[in-house]
Amino acid sequence: MAAHAVTPLTICCLRRGVPLNHSRRLLAVAAAAPESPAPTPAPSQLPLPPVPPRKGYFPKRGETVELTCEALAFKGKGVCKVAGSTFVLLCDGALPGERLIARVRRLRRGAFAEAAKLRTLEPHHDAIEAPCPLAADCGGCKTQSLAYAAQIRHKHHQVRDLLVNFGKFDPKRLESSEPDDILKPTVQCDEIFRYRNKMEFSFGTKRWVQKELKDKGEEVEVKQETNETDGYALGLHAPGFFDKVLHVQKCFLQSEPADKVLAVVQETWMDPAIGLTPYDVHKHVGFLKHLMIRTGRNISTGTPEVMVNFVTSCYKPDVLMPLVDKITKIPEVVSVINNVNSSVGNSSVGEQEYTLYGKPNITEMLRGLAFQISANSFFQTNTKQADVLYKLIEDSAGLKGDGSEIVLDLFCGTGTIGLTLARRAKHIYGYEVVPEAIEDARKNAKLNGINNATFVQGDLNKINESFGKEFPKPDIIISDPNRPGMHMKLIKWLLEVKAPRIVYVSCNPATCARDLDYLCHGVEEKDLRGFYELKSVIPVDMFPHTPHIECVCLLELR
């Protein structure tokens, strides 16, 4: 792909697994901020002198360059350029409007490059001070130093550009002064901190340490270049490294009771008298792999309930008991679980699960229903915003409420969406590939006294001619796929069954735009005709300070 053909949108698709033949159909996307010449910094301000741009510029690995960030790609990397060049460099931590010095780390297919930020020359637009001192290093809150209103603006632009350039929808119809415009304002999150009900931390033998370079007597912080140490750590993986862990004492995303748990574990687990060791991903020795903390609510009192899940390489409950005894002094802790994962892999899901204290699950309320959450259950990570999301899904579904309609809930997970619609529908049929999720869905239906819901385990990427024969023709289809979107087999089936309405819930606007294109405009190379009209797209910010955005899309049969 030629350098001039690369846009933030193209890069988004390349990095999210969208085929190159589709990304070539993208139109050029205007940068979020125009380039403007800037005064050359004094030599003493730079760790290394930047290489001046040249015509037909392609960077070299290890080269130090001065960049201007123009936009954000979908994963939150800054889309940067050297002045006078059209070649794109993706840089973590760079935000629109920022001028910076960066070092080229690697070239990607000759289409773009990745760079490591060395220092800021001029702050970005809408700059604020990040509350968390680790925000620039951990990667969990890539945009914490960007004002929240600006975060919303950039996410909205990304959704719009993907729908236009990849979904091939008319920009005049997407956003207009008419009440029937398709793209609605992005729904903001009321609580932009302490919103996560689940955090997973890793134990490690190599602590991520920020090193300092000295250039002409001046200390220069380098965020991506690090020294390896033998220090133990409990926290989040350093961006791009599976074996290095940034030591985290507190996290502004999780609940305050969860922070109490993390603090107690950090104070205790490295005590030599206890004899606990982190798992070494290279040598495959050690005991502690992960610490997972989940927060729910008691359905009777509304008070927080915390589950603590230790993932270990083997089952040694006596070794964990000193930690368990201290954790359970925290009033909100009602469950301590031990998942045993003896494989060399780093998964947090164990082959065996043991309850070390309290009950095996916690509960949470969503749209007036109670849900049981086990250690490995899928549940929306932002409970309060999930309530908002599900209300939008219910409104988009447009159920009559007379109990006459069949709802098909594809990729149903633990049944949360389908069950919130069940009281207004004749019957809910849910499909999900994960057996444990289906079991949880059935338990949740029973817990809430819902008898008109059937949940079936099956892989929707491998459906055959018999799919759909075990249930009546649906009036409404809810589809909530994971990031890769829907398989072509499922899209073909949807175009054949022709349900009156489809509500497509997406966590990846790139694959969402692709699938909406197929359903509305067809797939010429597969001789498929599109039968749907896109009526509305509502972006919903579920995860402030991250690049992620959900969309609720309504399609109606033409």
UniProtKB/TrEMBL annotation:
The keyword Protein biosynthesis does not apply. Residues 58-117 form the TRAM domain. GO terms for biological process: RNA methylation; RNA processing. CDD domains: AdoMet_MTases. The keyword Cell wall biogenesis/degradation does not apply. Transmembrane segments: none annotated. InterPro entries: MeTrfase_TrmA_CS, NA-bd_OB-fold, SAM-dependent_MTases_sf, TRAM_dom, U5_MeTrfase_fam. S-adenosyl-L-methionine binds at residues 380, 411, 432, 480. One of its GO terms (molecular function) is S-adenosylmethionine-dependent methyltransferase activity. Keywords: Methyltransferase, S-adenosyl-L-methionine, Transferase. SUPFAM superfamilies: Nucleic acid-binding proteins, S-adenosyl-L-methionine-dependent methyltransferases. The active site is at 507 (nucleophile). Belongs to the class I-like SAM-binding methyltransferase superfamily. RNA M5U methyltransferase family. This is TRAM domain-containing protein. The lineage of its organism: Eukaryota, Viridiplantae, Streptophyta, Embryophyta, Tracheophyta.
